[in-house]
Prior knowledge:
The complex is a heterodimer of chains A (about 290) and B (about 375).
Chain A: H1 2-32, H2 39-55, H3 60-83, H4 91-113, E1 128-131, E2 134-137, H5 138-160, H6 162-172, H7 174-179, H8 184-210, H9 217-231, H10 236-257, H11 263-277
Helix pairs in contact in A: 1-5, 1-8, 1-9, 1-10, 2-3, 2-4, 2-8, 2-9, 3-8, 5-6, 6-8, 9-10, 9-11, 10-11
Chain B: H1 2-7, H2 10-28, H3 31-56, H4 64-82, H5 86-108, H6 113-132, H7 135-138, E1 144-145, H8 153-163, H9 170-194, H10 196-206, H11 208-213, H12 218-244, E2 246-247, H13 254-267, H14 274-295, H15 301-326, H16 330-347, H17 350-354
Antiparallel strand pairs in B: 1-2
Amino acid sequence: MQEFLQLVLSGIASGGIFASLALALVLIYNAMGLVNFAQGEMAMFAAFIAYALIEHGMSYWIALPLTLAIAFAGGVAIQRLVIRPVERAPVLTLVIITLGLATLFNGLAGFLFGYVPRSFPSPFSVQTANLLGAFISYQDLGVIAVSAIVLLLVYLLLQRTTLGLSMRAASHNPDASRLLGVRVSWMLALGWGLASLVGALSGIMVAPVLLLEPNMMQTIIIYAFAAAVLGGIESPLGAVVGGLIVGVTVNLAGAYLVGGDLQLAVAFLIIVMVLIVKPNGLFGRPSVRRV
Amino acid sequence: MVSRLRSAPPRYWLIAALALVLAGLPFIVTSFESSEWTLVLIFTIAIMGLNILVGYSGQISLGHGAFMALGAYTTAILVSRYHMSYLVTIPIAGVVSGAVGFLLGIPALRLSALYLALATFALAVVTPSLIKRPDKLTGGVQGILMTPPDPPQYAKDAFATLTNGPQMSSEQWLYYVSLFTGAVLFWVAWNMIRHRPGRAMRAIRDGEVAAAASGINVAGYKTLAFGMSAFYAGVAGSLYGLSTGYVSPDTFPVALSFQILVGAVVGGLGSIVGPMVGGAFVYWLPIVSSQTISAQDWIPSQISSVFVKAGPAVTYGALLIVIMIFAPNGIVGLAAAAYRALRSRLRGSGEISTGQLPPDPHTV
């Protein structure tokens, strides 16, 4: 029982990381109906930027907001430079471009920083606290807290501010929003920036756990896909719930059912099952196709 | 006969010339170089299959490396565990992989293009860990070693007489096996594309609802495209395993699926010659670029070694983006546009005066 609780708790901690990356995917999906295959690699690259800043003697708490700002600017720049010319292109074109971005970031990180895994500092200690008889590290608690705060902030931004309203309007009905004076294209760019920021945070949080190297996010992005699909790919709340469910399920299945080496296959199974049985996920609206 | 030959369109001449060059290649280059060209042919086969799926039927697969792995392991297991003749295993690998592709194509029907991309991407990432699990069958992390197949006696003799020199090596034999397989598959794809199934697939790609309204069996043709492309990938995987002589889970990383997709995009989606260009491109780019970089003395060795490792990824990524933005029809599309521009320059732009529509690049 104690082991079970332990697994659930650490599952929630990794679920928090999956949830942030899934939230980044959802933000871009909502902005332009696209799954960003480069999200994981962008997060990894941001973690490398943070690493470089800290290596140059900057304190963690200055490097973190600076990295997030760089990630935000980078996301906006990517949308302006690469995505905007093909905004109205077919899905296939957009998917291939995000794959190109993923490969590009992966290669760039390898080029600039090499492929040797590096340890990444964490602001939280690895000592454990006793919670309901199970042990949880301050590291995991910190990850859960940071994820919760970010998710809350994103929720407030989207639902409680005029800017969030404009962003939602721009993605929901671009033509009407343009007539009402919303600068639609810039709202999409903001969406990319925000997604890049949230994703960067997940990269920075996962780096101390997994060791930083260019292929670090390759498995995490699959868990994030599973989380986003499970929650319904257009629902921010769904991404969070999906992330937690995937984190816990994968942890439990790895320990009791299939073994640690097939945890990734469990995520794959979740994706396939959800897409076949309930393609809109837990919180997604059923999609209606107009001819 | 002669007049028919004379009036044959230039693309037939092009293909005949290409076939001649490819058939004569092992006589010119070394045995090792023909093994490199074997890999080019193998990539071409896999890309041809992906092109049927992506370029013609408009579905996305980012996981064709998984089908290659299936084909390669089918051959490896049949050859090493059941001592089957390797030539027989090539079509078997294709059929096994094609059947799995066909079955996967059925749930794929329900998915939008985006979700299909997502699911197949996940498949590509999961494949290596799925292969490792049944280690009694697949050899686990160690993989399976295969002895390179020996050319049959008649091929050895024929080669020795023609070159007046050494007998045919197993690399050269595999080159011819791949060339023959590739030629057959090219013929199949070309004929399919220009006839009813190809027209139906293009109609589905360009407007699914309209295609359904015209009486096209949308579900049937979409699963057919999936099955066929998996068949091609399986055959390519089988040849890949035979020519490297070794299959292991790490032979089939996500990067392999990417490489096939890059080849299809760079060559030109929805073009029948695109895969050949793409196959040569994805195989030679990393090799040529790393050789060029390592040969430069002024670059410090640490930097050049990192570039050799990361360079292909950077180039692939940048190229994918640039091509998708500026030339969505790939190298073949660019060449065709240049040819048309040149011809209208030379002959005067006839289309405007006669009111005739320009030829559609897709109805080859």
